[in-house]
Amino acid sequence: MALLEVTSLTKYYGDTAALRDISFEVKKGEFVAVIGPSGSGKTTLIRCINRLIPASDGKIIFDKENILNLRGNALRKARAKIGMIFQHYNLVERLSVIENVLHGRLGYKSSLEGMFGVYSEEEKEKAFNIITLLGLDDYVYRRCDQLSGGQMQRVGIARALVQDPRMILCDEPISSLDPSSSKVIMDYLKKIQKEFGITVVVNLHQVDVAKKYAQRILGFNGGSLVFDDEPGELSKKQIYKIYGTEAGELIID
Amino acid sequence: MTALIRNRRTGKIRVRKTQSSNLYMRGVLLVLAAITVYTLVTIDTKGADIAAASAKTAEYFWLMLTQPKAVPSHFGIQDGGGIGTFFSALHMLGITLALAFLTTLFGGIVALFLGVFAAGNLTNKKVSNGIKSFLAVVRAVPTVLWVLIFAIGAGLGSVAAVIGMSFHTISHLVKAYSESFEEIDEGVIEALRASGANWFQIVFQAVIPSSVSYILSWTFIRFEINFAVAVAMGAAAGAGGIGFQLFMAAGYFFDIREIGFITYLILAVSLIMEYLATRLKEKYHIHNGA
Questions:
Q1: How far apart are the C-alpha atoms of B24 and B18, rounded to whole Å?
Q2: What was the ipTM of the complex prediction?
Q3: Residue A82: its chain B contacts at CB < 8 A?
Q4: CATH code, residues B72-284
């Protein structure tokens, strides 16, 4: 059953098309990687799904609702069901790890409770359990500007997980990390998908990583979806089609 | 390919391109320098002996700095003096500090709210520009003038001083706060929006915590400014405190040594505030590697 159904999604920035007539489906519990050169529309796609960027045309059905029609509180509720992880972690660095993780609950809170950071005991326990799961229990009260990049990204994952999301979107989660931290982060994402059955859609610049972790790969070029299949089908020819001949050679070697 | 630009005479390679704005700047500076020299040469001194006047000024300065002494009766102390005079002076200093504290507090609270609405990344351009341009006008008028303007309604005294000083404090702090809000990482706002947080939650949970060190340091700077202004207001607007005493010593009793005494008191307060500001910064500016 499809959890996310994107139909004829189009996005224009002025006169330039960032996404041209994109259609695909993501099944519940699937691990999908999105690859393509810079400027091919990967980031725009991810941000259109949770409406950080308004789409120009098309339909995005998530959990039986068309995201593009939602307003106000309904949009907040839909966003709460979709976690998001960023390249630059996007944490409030002056706050502690647990405060940042609890930010994931804001979508479920009233304005006043959220403003003053009033969280229930269950929410705090849940946040602590997730922090422990991600191996950060020694850092619960540490300020985030004292953490390493890999640790900050794990806080980012914890913040997304505490939302009880149906799906997690990741925008180049490992592009600012060294290879060993990258592996840790990808392993956690895989674990989340396998053990909790959460759908994961991840933008990647590393084709080998996409092939290793993903069950399905979407390849973008110039705002068009040019590849949508299992990693095994991603042939040399397909990589050339996604990245162009010159860059493709570098990737395949 | 762009060719390298060489100096016409020396033939050396330039690293900065001469731009017309630089030329205008040089022109303005040259004209100002010329006017300054012309004025100094042609100034009408009304026959005053510059050398003698300078010597007298230096002498008074020396007297003020080396022999500070307060006259008890000037501080309302009739018999004995000594420690009583000192406490009376401290009390006046307290009034001036209270004036600075109150106006900074009022100004800070109002500015925090207005600052959020003036930050371009948190509201729409119209609201932000509206608030910013209105406050730019407020800021252009000096604090003393605002106090005198409010004195029309409230009468000369501490009430007009509090209103006028708070008014100017707001305009200054809104600019400082809103600019530090605009500096914060757009990604943090995006992340909270993505998790379903609404505007108020984002402001209180991400924007304000991220800029708390800027808010603190700007507020403290404004407190220091307000202390200096409060001293002046004591004299100019009759707001009382140590400033009024300074005005009396200078304009009424013409007691140079008492001016010295009061100056040292004010200096001591400034030093204490500087020390506190440094401690505050140490406490809130902890970064990586701690």
A1: 11
A2: 0.90
A3: 194
A4: 1.10.3720.10
